[in-house]
Design a protein that fits this description.
It is found in: Cytoplasm. The protein is an alpha+beta fold and 336 residues long. It has helices at 21-34, 72-83, 102-110, 119-126, 128-137, 157-163, 189-196, 243-247, 262-279, 312-319, 324-335, and strands at 8-15, 40-47, 53-55, 57-58, 63-64, 88-92, 141-142, 145-148, 167-171, 181-183, 203-207, 212-220, 226-228, 232-236, 252-255, 284-292, 295-302. A hairpin with a 5-residue loop joins strand 2 (40-47) and strand 3 (53-55).
């Protein structure tokens, strides 16, 4: 393929086989719209829900894709050939089959540079159990919980007493609160497990944490230093920040910067940096915390957070004085 002189060729990969396919497409739409075509030659690559890779044509603000289909393997081989012409790949993928190290491993094997964390950090960050085990060993507090693997269908009486009610039942490897339930009565646990296991065989049952919901955005500079943007507090009227609260316009309020004192701000920033380092992340990370009366508790991490213009991660950096196109420039520069 011909490469225009003086421009960086960027392969934007999006879609995917996970339940977050549409969310990924939304993130990619913003990336495609705001990449400066004076600086970048864009190669759009969409992964369909059935795993077929589709090579598109850049229109200048979006992408078009040819009709027709083939097998996932055949299409992936063709896409790899196209990817080898790129200077850097931008995997705008959320959830399993994209954010979990699978696509990162493919890019690593092909020798293609890419935005975001590597294979191990991506896989670890996708698995809530492994994430919390690692960061807890580094002294970052996490919610008490129980792991139920395939075949485990109940929580023991001692664990019920330890966790109390309510609890949250979550697929261990998923995002956007897909498959997550709040359980206020142990009689409803079975139904919550059925829902969670539609998305993962491994399920977490976690104690509720009483605290303010605060997100921190970490950005790695080209020299390896870490910047943490202004804290974002999420306010909503739902029983928890579920899928509808996240993606229904007006259902949640994002307060940037959050109303924090110097000590609280310092605790959150320190915890975000420690999480980034402990997991071995690269490029970017969104770390979601509960700010409680006793301190900071990690809720979850996103190694490839939502990247629509209005998502939390870009909002935070815009509040810090970094417009969305500049944020994209920085992520690509760091990846290269």
């Amino acid at each position: 393929m011909h490469r225009s002189a003086g421009r960086t060729r960027v392969a934007v990969i999006f879609g995917g086989r996970s339940a977050e396919h549409d969310i990924s497409c939304g993130s990619a739409a913003s990336v495609l719209r705001f990449l400066d075509r004076g600086r970048y030659e864009v190669l759009p690559i969409r992964i369909a829900r059935d795993g077929v890779w589709q090579i598109g044509t850049d229109t200048g603000t979006s992408a078009v894709f040819p009709a027709g289909s083939t097998s996932p393997l055949t299409s992936m081989i063709a896409a790899l050939g196209a990817l080898r012409t790129a200077d850097v790949a931008f995997p705008v993928l959320h959830g399993p089959f994209g954010e979990d190290g699978t696509v990162q491993g493919l890019l690593e094997t092909a020798g293609i540079r890419y935005v975001g964390s590597g294979v191990l950090a991506s896989a670890t960050g996708m698995d809530k159990q492994f994430t919390k085990t690692i960061v807890a060993a580094e002294g970052v507090a996490v919610a008490p919980g129980v792991v139920l693997r395939d075949g485990d269908d109940d929580v023991t009486d001692p664990d019920r007493e330890r966790l109390g009610l309510p609890v949250f039942v979550k697929p261990a490897r998923g995002g956007s609160s897909v498959g997550v339930s709040r359980v206020d009565d142990w009689a409803d646990l079975e139904q919550a497990l059925v829902l969670a296991r539609k998305h993962d065989t491994k399920v977490l049952v976690e104690a509720a944490v009483d605290g303010r919901e605060v997100d921190l955005a970490v950005l790695q500079r080209t020299d390896g230093t870490l910047d943490v943007g202004p804290a974002l507090e999420i306010r909503h009227g739902a029983s928890f920040f579920d899928f509808d609260a996240k993606y229904t316009p007006g259902a949640a309020e994002f307060v940037i910067p959050a109303d924090l004192d110097q000590v609280q701000r310092g605790q959150l920033e320190d915890a975000a940096r420690r999480v980034f380092t402990a997991l071995g992340c690269a490029g970017l990370l969104r770390a979601d915390f509960f700010l409680t009366a006793g301190g900071v508790v990690l809720n979850e991490v996103n190694t490839l957070p939502g990247l629509t213009e209005l998502s939390q991660f870009p909002r935070i950096w815009r509040a810090a004085g970094m417009p969305y196109p500049e944020l994209l420039d920085h992520l690509l520069s760091t990846a290269r």
